[in-house]
Task: inverse folding
C-alpha cells in the first residue's frame, strides 16, 4: 500500500510538472544561434566585451582589433549586420583588457582599456555620436593596469572604474 502511494504521488508530480512547462521535451530549444554573420570582425579580435544598449537593447562589442594594429574597435548589430561605431582602431595605440558599458543617463557607450600609448595606464573613452573622445585625461591611473572594469551607478549615472594596479602588489584600485 505504501509503495502504491509513492508511485501515485510520483505520477502526480510528473504530470503537474509537465503541464506547468517545467519539463522540456527537446534540448534543441536551447540551440545557440549567431547574431549576424559568424566572424564579422575584419581580423583577429581579443579582449572581447559584449554589452547591450539600455535604450533599444542593441548588442555592441568592443575588442582589441588586430586588423588595425591591435587598437580599440567597437561594433553594433543593426538588425541585419554588424557595423562600426565610429572609426575602427580609434585608440591612440594598442589596447588590452577593454571593457564596454553604457551610461544610463544618455545611453552612450563607454570603454575602458589598458592604453599602451600612455605607459600601460587606464584610459576611458566614450562615443559622442560621431567619434570616440577621452573622458578625462588619457592614461589617468598612477601606473599600469590590468583587468579593467567599468560600470555606472544606475541611480545617478556616475561612472566607476576598477582595475589591477601594476604598481606594488597588483592590488585592486
Result:
Amino acid at each position: 500500500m505504501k509503495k502504491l502511494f509513492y508511485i501515485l504521488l510520483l505520477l502526480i508530480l510528473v504530470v503537474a510538472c509537465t503541464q506547468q512547462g517545467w519539463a522540456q521535451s527537446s534540448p534543441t530549444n536551447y540551440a545557440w544561434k549567431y547574431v549576424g554573420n559568424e566572424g564579422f570582425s575584419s581580423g583577429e579580435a581579443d579582449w572581447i566585451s559584449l554589452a547591450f544598449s539600455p535604450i533599444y537593447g542593441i548588442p555592441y562589442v568592443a575588442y582589441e582589433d588586430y586588423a588595425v594594429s591591435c587598437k580599440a574597435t567597437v561594433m553594433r548589430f543593426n538588425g541585419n549586420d554588424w557595423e562600426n561605431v565610429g572609426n575602427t582602431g580609434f585608440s591612440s595605440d594598442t589596447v588590452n583588457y577593454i571593457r564596454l558599458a553604457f551610461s544610463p543617463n544618455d545611453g552612450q557607450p563607454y570603454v575602458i582599456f589598458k592604453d599602451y600609448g600612455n605607459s600601460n595606464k587606464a584610459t576611458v573613452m566614450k562615443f559622442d555620436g560621431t567619434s570616440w573622445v577621452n573622458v578625462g585625461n588619457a592614461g589617468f591611473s598612477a601606473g599600469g593596469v590590468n583587468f579593467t572594469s567599468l560600470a555606472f551607478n544606475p541611480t545617478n549615472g556616475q561612472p566607476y572604474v576598477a582595475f589591477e594596479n601594476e604598481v606594488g602588489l597588483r592590488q585592486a584600485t
